[in-house]
Design goal:
0% strand; 60% helix; mainly alpha; 131 residues
Length: 131
């Protein structure tokens, strides 16, 4: 299923709303960090469902006739490239949920690159509305 720009934006805003309305003040998340969030939290499960819709739409996914196996590249194999708006959005809204290493793996980037981008975003004061 191919999503247009407005559908993608709507999904990202839904994820952002869930983060703002539930995760920011969740006592379980604050107390146990991400272990409870990733395993049992219904809000986290909802966000993962929404994110999977976005991930299924990305051009980097294998075509339906190709075998569905994920190939993780080593940090040395990851080429330098510009940050997309979706990557910046994901990075900013998951910076307190995942470690630098986990974010780097999820974004297929080097940990140093993720760290530097986060540092740049914090100095800039975050992200503006992307879409």
């Amino acid at each position: 299923m191919k999503l247009d720009k407005h559908e993608k934006r709507h999904i990202r805003l839904q994820i952002c709303e869930l983060l703002d309305s539930h995760c920011r003040t969740c006592p379980e998340r604050i107390k146990y960090r991400s272990t409870v969030c990733l395993n049992v939290c219904p809000i986290s499960q909802e966000m993962r469902k929404l994110a999977s819709v976005l991930e299924d739409d990305t051009p980097s996914n294998p075509q339906p006739n190709e075998p569905s196996q994920h190939r993780v590249q080593s940090a040395a194999q990851i080429p330098k490239r510009r940050w997309s708006a979706e990557e910046v959005f994901y990075l900013w809204h998951h910076r307190k949920v995942f470690t630098i290493e986990q974010l780097a793996e999820r974004l297929n980037r080097k940990p140093k690159s993720v760290y530097e981008k986060l540092k740049q975003l914090v100095q800039k004061g975050g992200i503006s509305d992307i879409g």
